[in-house]
């Protein structure tokens, strides 16, 4: 049994993949908890989709994926703002139109026969193909997100828990909601290399939803989401190694499976 | 000396339209003032003005202290993973640097305020699992931890159980004795009659003064319009619709 668990990680390729997925999960889990508490799961889905054209263009130009993703998010924000201004569309429809258009454009570019085959990996990630540089980039971004979340913890909590009274308690909800979306964008950029544009959102939302099913207290939920995300990463990589399935997809499914398990467990309303 | 002085206040969010106008009153330390008015009449808007969140068009607002605000319990998130004590501790967040833990003195004070509202034994309970009245008392404890001389309460007695209502009214009397000023939005005319001052609003200020002079059929009629019902025997009742926020 121990061999079954440890043998896969004797390989440097799997070691890098493990490091990448743990680093990303530690940031994605807690940010996912906040995303769910702010009821912004649609934003999480949208942001990862919207950055695809930026990622593709960066890959084609040989530029940094981080730079491409950032540009993609900025273009998406502009497109959403413009679409939302059209009274015939309205806010939600505006977001849907802008995001779908950008994702379609990104997919068109990524899957075109004229571009290198690896661009397709932007959609589903390539955990086993990450380089040491990818891991370092992800670690820096994850560290930024984690430190920011620690410092913003109380203001984020006030704004999400009691939007009406938050200003009298020292937090401006609109400002902190924007800050959260910015951190979500950074986190998505960190996750996209390993998990891909379509699957990154699973590592953000599923461990967070699982943690919220179990924890009755916020710090516990935040820590548990990080742990469950890392656990999903380990389980997914093991499944990928032993059953020869795609690593990113296996991690995403492991995260969803963990969420499913937590639905069967009771949530406590008194804290130990 | 007045703790709150409002003079000729008018303000609103929509361009060209005042949400509230012609508001003028002054409250001395140790005063409980009822804020009466129909839904949409300007009670919450007045609170927003006192909290500095309403764009003012005319008039002045002078406050001796930054007010603490107690929202209606249904405006908070009951699914949020926090205990009753966590919620009370939020009252200390504004004075706690982001990189520091909440001070031990504030933690002790938070437990003491929970005890004061009669919920010391509920400190570790999930906030959402408490009854409506208990949640309201937790939110009041949070305002007490802010340690402000002025507390604004948005319908704190609406829909709470009898035990909580009695506790809250008892607490109001203690806070008045401590010299604090409470502004309490309410629909209950009989409740307002027991307090010191009454501010009647219907888009603008209809009346301000002691209950005996303000809670007349004429003033209530102008304040509530069609929502005021005169019962057989001369009793007045307010037909309250559920808040549409």
Spell out the blueprint of helices and strands.
The complex is a heterodimer of chains A (272) and B (245).
Chain A: H1 2-6, H2 12-37, H3 41-50, H4 52-61, H5 65-85, H6 91-110, H7 121-124, H8 132-161, H9 166-169, H10 173-214, H11 218-243, H12 247-263
Helix pairs in contact in A: 2-8, 2-10, 2-11, 3-6, 3-10, 4-5, 4-6, 5-6, 5-10, 8-10, 10-11, 10-12, 11-12
Chain B: E1 4-11, E2 20-27, E3 31-36, H1 43-50, E4 56-63, E5 68-70, H2 84-89, H3 104-116, H4 132-146, E6 150-154, H5 162-177, E7 181-186, H6 189-193, E8 197-201, E9 205-209, H7 211-214, H8 217-224, E10 228-230, E11 236-238
Helix pairs in contact in B: 3-4, 4-5
Task: Provide structural commentary.
The complex is a heterodimer of chains A (272) and B (245). In chain A, 79% of the residues lie in helices and 0% in strands. The mean pLDDT of chain A is 87. The longest helix of chain A is centred in the last third of the chain and has 42 residues. With 272 residues, chain A is mainly α. By secondary structure, chain B is α/β, with parallel strands linked by helices. Chain B folds into two domains: 165 residues, Rossmann fold (3-Layer(aba) Sandwich); 72 residues, no CATH class. Chain B is built from eight helices and eleven strands. In chain B, the strands form three sheets. Chain B has a six-stranded mixed β-sheet with strand order 5-6-7-3-8-9, with helices on both faces. In chain B, strands 2-1-4 form a three-stranded antiparallel β-sheet, with helices on one face. In chain B, helix 3 packs across helix 4. At the A-B interface, helix 8, helix 9 and helix 11 of A face strand 5 and helix 4 of B.
Shape of chain A: globular
Could you state the oligomeric state of the chains shown? Answer: heterodimer
Q: How many structural units, i.e. domains of chain B? A: 2
| Low-confidence sequence ranges of chain A | none
What composes the largest sheet of chain B? 6 strands, mixed
Q: State the fourth-level CATH superfamily of the largest domain in chain B.
A: P-loop containing nucleotide triphosphate hydrolases
What is the 3D shape of chain B? globular
Number of helices of chain B: 8
Radius of gyration of chain B: 18 Å
CATH H-level name of chain A... which superfamily?
A: ABC transporter involved in vitamin B12 uptake, BtuC
> From the coordinates shown, what is the CATH architecture of the largest domain in chain B?
3-Layer(aba) Sandwich
- Strand-residue proportion of chain A: under 5%
Strand content of chain B: 15-25%
The CATH topology of chain A turns out to be ABC transporter involved in vitamin B12 uptake, BtuC
């Amino acid at each position: 049994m121990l061999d079954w668990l440890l043998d896969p990680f004797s390989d440097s390729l799997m070691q890098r993949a493990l490091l990448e997925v743990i680093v990303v999960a530690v940031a994605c889990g807690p940010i996912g908890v906040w995303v769910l508490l702010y009821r912004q799961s649609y934003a999480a889905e949208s942001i990862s989709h919207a950055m695809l054209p930026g990622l593709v263009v960066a890959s084609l130009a040989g530029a940094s994926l981080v730079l491409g993703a950032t540009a993609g998010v900025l273009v998406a924000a502009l497109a959403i703002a413009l679409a939302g201004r059209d009274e015939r569309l309205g806010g939600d429809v505006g977001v849907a139109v802008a995001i779908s258009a950008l994702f379609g454009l990104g997919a068109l570019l990524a899957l075109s026969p004229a571009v290198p085959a690896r661009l397709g990996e932007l959609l589903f990630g390539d955990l086993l193909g990450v380089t040491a540089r990818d891991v370092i980039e992800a670690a820096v971004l994850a560290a930024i997100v984690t430190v920011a979340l620690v410092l913003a913890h109380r203001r984020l909590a006030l704004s999400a828990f009691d939007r009406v009274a938050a200003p009298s308690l020292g937090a401006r909800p609109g400002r902190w909601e924007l800050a959260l979306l910015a951190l979500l964008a950074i986190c998505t950029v960190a996750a996209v290399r390993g998990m891909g544009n379509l699957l990154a959102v699973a590592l953000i939302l599923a461990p967070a939803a699982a943690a919220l099913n179990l924890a009755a207290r916020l710090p516990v939920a935040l820590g548990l989401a990080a742990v469950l995300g890392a656990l999903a990463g380990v389980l997914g990589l093991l499944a990928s190694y032993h059953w020869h399935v795609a690593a990113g997809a296996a991690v995403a499914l492991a995260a969803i499976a963990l969420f499913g398990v937590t639905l069967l467990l009771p949530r406590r309303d008194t804290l130990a | 000396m007045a703790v709150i002085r409002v003079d000729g206040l008018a303000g609103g969010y929509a361009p060209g339209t005042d949400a509230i106008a012609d508001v003028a009153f002054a409250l001395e330390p140790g005063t409980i003032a009822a804020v009466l008015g129909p839904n949409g009449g300007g009670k919450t808007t007045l609170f927003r003005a006192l909290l500095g969140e309403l764009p003012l068009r005319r008039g002045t607002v002078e406050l001796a202290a930054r007010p603490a605000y107690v929202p209606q319990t249904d405006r908070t998130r009951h699914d949020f993973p926090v205990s009753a004590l966590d919620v009370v501790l939020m009252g200390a967040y504004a004075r706690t640097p982001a990189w520091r833990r909440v001070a031990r003195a504030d933690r002790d004070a938070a437990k003491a305020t929970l005890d004061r509202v009669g919920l010391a034994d509920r400190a570790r309970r999930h906030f959402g699992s408490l009854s409506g009245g208990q949640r309201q008392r937790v939110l009041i404890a949070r305002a007490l931890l802010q340690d402000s001389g002025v507390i604004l309460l948005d319908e704190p007695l609406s829909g709470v159980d009898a035990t909580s209502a009695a506790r809250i009214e008892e607490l109001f009397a203690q806070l008045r004795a401590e010299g604090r000023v409470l502004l309490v939005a309410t629909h209950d005319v009989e409740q307002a009659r027991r307090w010191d001052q009454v501010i009647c609003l219907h888009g603008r200020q209809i009346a301000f003064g002691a209950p005996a002079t303000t809670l007349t059929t004429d003033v209530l009629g102008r304040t509530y319009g069609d929502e005021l019902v005169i019962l057989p025997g001369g009793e007045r009742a307010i037909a309250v619709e559920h808040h549409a926020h």
